[in-house]
Amino acid sequence: MKRQTIITACALAAALLAAPSAFATSLHESGYAVCAPDAIQKDNRPAPSQRLFRSKAVEAQIKRMQQLLKNEKLAWMFTNCFPNTLDTTVHFRTDKKDGKPDTFVYTGDIHAMWLRDSGAQVWPYVQLANEDAELKTMLAGVINRQFKLINVDPFANAFNDGPIPDGHWKTDLTDMNDEVHERKWEIDSLCYPLRLAYHYWKTTGDASIFDAEWLKAIQNILKTFHDQQRRDGRGSYHFQRVTERALDTITNDGLGNPVKPVGLIASSFRPSDDATTFQFLVPSNFFAVSSLRKAAEILTAVNKRQDLAKECMDLAQEVETALKKYATYQHPKYGTIYAFEVDGFGNHMLMDDANVPSLIAMPYLGDVDVNDPVYQNTRRFVWSEDNPYFFKGKAGEGIGDPHIGYDMIWPMSIMMKAFTSQNDDEIKTCIKMLMDTEAGTGFMHESFHKDNPEKFTREWFAWQNTLFGELILKLVNEGKTDLLNSIQ
Prior knowledge:
Blueprint: H1 2-18, H2 22-29, H3 56-68, H4 72-81, H5 84-88, E1 90-94, E2 101-105, E3 113-114, H6 115-122, H7 133-152, E4 158-159, E5 180-182, H8 187-204, H9 212-227, H10 251-254, E6 280-281, H11 282-303, H12 306-326, E7 328-331, E8 335-338, E9 341-342, E10 348-349, H13 362-365, H14 373-382, E11 390-392, E12 397-399, E13 408-409, H15 411-419, H16 424-436, E14 447-449, E15 452-457, H17 462-477, H18 481-485
Antiparallel strand pairs: 1-2, 3-4, 4-5, 6-9, 7-8, 9-10, 11-12, 13-14, 14-15
Helix pairs in contact: 1-2, 4-17, 6-7, 6-8, 6-17, 7-8, 7-9, 8-11, 9-12, 11-12, 15-16, 15-17
């Protein structure tokens, strides 16, 4: 019955789109593309009528992968995971004020838009934008929305879909705004939109997103980064929360532990939304360098704003120089490695957190060369029991974080190991581990217990789902289909 219903629904949609009617035009312009029925009929996706956004290019990739992947479970998991952001989190419309595409993206079970998560969630679809006009427009809408949100508050990490006067974190002791869901200052929140916009532009050639809103956003980004270098005092950001979780608030009256102004950018919180210990978060500073250089290229080629481009390049160079001087540590076992956090006074936090940007993920983001010897030393360190947040048990091994706590492994860390691996056996082990720890759901989760994958956090976390699809698609496109098909 399910197959018959889907075919009927798709046939009806095709007929409606072909008809010269107002409804057909509305359906087409809304971003819903006609799709063939899923080849795997027992998938765990929402029914077609309940999917928030349909992309013919994404559906074509799902069909292609179902044909190429001989492991039925892997094909099933890809089918569930790769479109999860589109199926469940994308709210696409046209802005009533300026007429531009506008896309609000939930993280999943939290109905707010994180600048980081939304930029990562839609990232894998950019490679398909030229094959699907509706998808391309939706992606432009995400970028437009991100620039607007940065201009609402460049210190905020997550936003509401419009003003909410009594928002969930309204009582936080910081400069809250009704449009802000949460105001945790994290460097990467301003980097992910730059990464996404640059990738979109390079892929599609569409520069329409780089308008006045963009110019205002990049100026706010530069102002915020300079402010958080803390050369002239302690910066303008402060944050405190009444909570039983130590890492949900900040020491020293909301200013954090002291840093020495050496050129690095302070980040009060990590990508996990946990407070930093030493506020110069190394992987996020690397991310700032690469993102600022992308912004400079856009400003030069599109906007002809050499003044802003130079400011981006100068800041990137300043941070990079400081990273070379302050971000490394001479480890007695692993040699020279990158620290996770530093303070400029000579203190180092030696660990890694599963959330991206992380130390292990730096080549994935394009921030360091995968063959950089310091990175390779660091990679060996973070994937070992010398990293206090590396956990290994009966179900698997990987990196967790204080956000979830002891013995909980994030699948994201396993994916990042695979993304940055140059060893087929290692990649195969990672994929098998991800397949073995989905707890029968067909989806990724935020974390799972090292000895029991049935114990997991967050049933609906779109970033990890779509990231898994991105990884499998990348491996197939790089000619590793036989490797994937060899998994038992």
